[in-house]
Amino acid sequence: MTRPAILVARAVFPEVLEHLGQHFDVESNQADTIFAKPELIARLQGKQGAFTTGSERIDAEVLAACPQLRVVANMAVGYNNFDIPACTAAGVLATNTPDVLTETTADFGFALMMATARRMAESEHFLRRGEWTRWSYDMFAGSDVHGSTLGILGMGRIGQAIARRGALGFGMKVVYHNRSRLPAEQEAPIGARYVDKATLLREADHLVLVLPYSAGAHHAIGAAELALMKPTATLTNIARGGIVDDAALAAALREGRIAAAGLDVFEGEPALNPALLTVPNVVLTPHIASSTMATRRAMADLAAKNLVAALTGGVAPTPINPEAWTKA
Ligand code: 8YV
């Protein structure tokens, strides 16, 4: 029996490649080239499966050019690189990696929020430049995290994990906005209060964005939203580039309309809006919120598990569009 063929579109743990090799004919990319669309299409020819990351866009054009493709397994919880309706229409099962990265990503979101509130990057840069010559009473005075109001936009698994850290570890009051309100039994242990978006923006001392990207979430935080925030507030984005209007944010930071921002994701990343590099009150990290060795390995393992199950007659553990395969 011929084995299914798959493309692993980016470099991955060698152990995961080896595991995939037990089930599939694998074309790998350990050189980690990022394939432009024509090359991605060319490499997907004859492949039933693809192991992807956020850098591979699977859209109607790719699907039409690769009619033998049956499964696309993303090594990420977010899947805005997939056109899900197009995948479903093409009978292509799409999978992602929820749960395994929740706590790690929440740790990072909380750390980035704290680094932002306490001006860690800005003060470290000052020190490295050799500018620290004496103590002064208000040197890099930031704002407290403990006891303040934590605002969460997007109260999914990661949002709830950040809220738990804030409420239970730091005595923060939690306000949140989400498409739907949490059941009372999930709100109660962390004292989370559901508010409309404008109230969230007005009340938060530290606002953390954890919502998935969709066309509707594009520039969910722009100049008008930033204008509602307290001038002492911080904004942390660990969700997706494009949810924040980075140009509007850079202007707000420069003009002191909010105190500071922590950003792990950017519009058009890995390129950055150059204005963000010129404002001091922003902590910038290169999309690493899920990046611990254990969690990246768990994500890769889950993506591999999805491919193996789906292409060898099993049931993929974390499908996004299970209906893709149940339709006639
Ligand atoms: C990934 C992420 O590292 O899971 C997600 O949605 O944003 C990150 O954990 C990134 O998407 C690469 O696939």
Salient structural properties:
five-stranded parallel β-sheet, binds 2-keto-D-gluconic acid, 14 helices, 328 residues, Rossmann fold, seven-stranded parallel β-sheet, 2 domains, alpha/beta
Structure description:
The protein is α/β, with parallel strands linked by helices. It is 37% helix and 14% strand. The chain has 14 helices and 12 strands. It starts with a strand and ends with a helix. Residues 53-54, 75-78, 101, 290 line the site of 2-keto-D-gluconic acid.
Q: What would a concise description of this structure say?
A:
By secondary structure, the protein is of the alpha/beta class. It has helices at 14-21, 37-44, 60-65, 84-89, 102-117, 120-128, 157-170, 184-187, 197-203, 223-228, 246-254, 274-278, 293-311, 323-326; strands at residues 5-8, 25-27, 49-52, 71-74, 93-95, 149-153, 173-177, 192-194, 206-209, 234-237, 260-263, 282-284.
- Major sheet: order of its strands? 8-7-6-9-10-11-12
Oligomer: single chain
Query: Roughly how much helix do the residues carry, as a percent range?
Result: 25-40%
Assign the CATH superfamily of the largest domain: NAD(P)-binding Rossmann-like Domain
What's the CATH architecture name of the largest domain?
Answer: 3-Layer(aba) Sandwich
Radius of gyration: 22 Å
Low-confidence stretches: none
Our measurement of the CA-to-CA distance between the termini, rounded to an integer number of angstroms, reads: 26 Å
Question: What characterizes the major β-sheet?
Answer: 7 strands, parallel
CATH-defined fold name of the largest domain: Rossmann fold
Identify the bound ligands.
2-keto-D-gluconic acid
